[in-house]
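Dear Dr. H.,

I hope your travels went smoothly. While you were away I took the liberty of generating a structure for the chain from your last submission, since the lab meeting agenda had it listed for discussion. I wanted you to have the full record in hand beforehand rather than looking at slides cold. The sequence, exactly as received, is reproduced here:
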Amino acid sequence: MSKGKVVAPVIAPAPVVAPWVLAALTAPVVPPLAPVKAVGARGRAALFADDLVITLLVAANPKRGQSLKRFAKYRSGMSVADYAAAVGDRRIALADLAWDTQRKFVRVAPAALVVPAAA
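The corresponding predicted structure, in token form, is as follows:
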């Protein structure tokens, strides 16, 4: 034991947090929507049911070669079945959809969740 002055521990004041930061930190986290899967389907066909609606997220065509021609067939509001019919080969159309949704070129969602564009 040392003899001398007893020093009380220093307690730092709590940091001041802006109300909007506190609200953002305590807000409930909304889970992302689960993909709507086609019943009884496998592979990419399981990810994209025919009645899902495609929405374009990019203004310019980001593709090259043959995929450029297929990307030009996308229209906001068309269904997956419409796109597959426009491409002509369902397997290639679903592969394009998988690639383009991963890269956020298009979004695929149920028709009930698609918000119509303002006129």
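Two observations you may find useful: Helices lie at 19-26, 44-47, 65-71, 80-87, 90-102. The two ends are 81 Å apart (CA to CA).

With kind regards,
E. W.
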